Amino acid sequence: MPPDQILFLCTGNYYRSRYAEEVFNFRAAAEGLAWRAFSRGLAEAGSSENVGPMSRFALDALEQRSIAPCGAGRLPTPCSPADFEQASLIIALKEVEHRPMVERRFPHVTGRIEYWHVHDIEFAPPEVALPMIDAAVDELILRLQRHGQHQGKHQGDGGHDQN
Fold this sequence. Notes:
Layout: E1 4-10, H1 16-31, E2 35-41, H2 56-64, H3 81-86, E3 89-92, H4 95-105, E4 113-115, H5 126-146
Parallel strand pairs: 1-2, 1-3, 3-4
Helix pairs in contact: 1-2, 1-5
């Protein structure tokens, strides 16, 4: 049976969601959890300010944590309706920023999304934002372990706030 999937969402799928995906997959594998994460961007087009496939801040932080990113070469990927069908749990990294994007582009999934509160780089430096993601991922892993690893298809916390 394939593992349950978590979809991490941010604006451009370049920094926060990519970092969360890599950290979650590394830690879940270390804990023996039958969950895998993937990530997507809610913006319809990527930013011209993003250089390369993944933020250097995310890559540097992963290296500092001895995590070899499996998806470092993948270009940012915009979200599509099919991504929501794959996901058992959907987490957007910043409610104030992402809820309006979800409501505009994907209104049919608004009730399935859990929101964290991690600022993008222009509002919080990586030394602040990325440890927030680390802590939220740790809490998520503990929650999945407490719930026997399986929350069931399409049964997220529906707007539950974290961090």
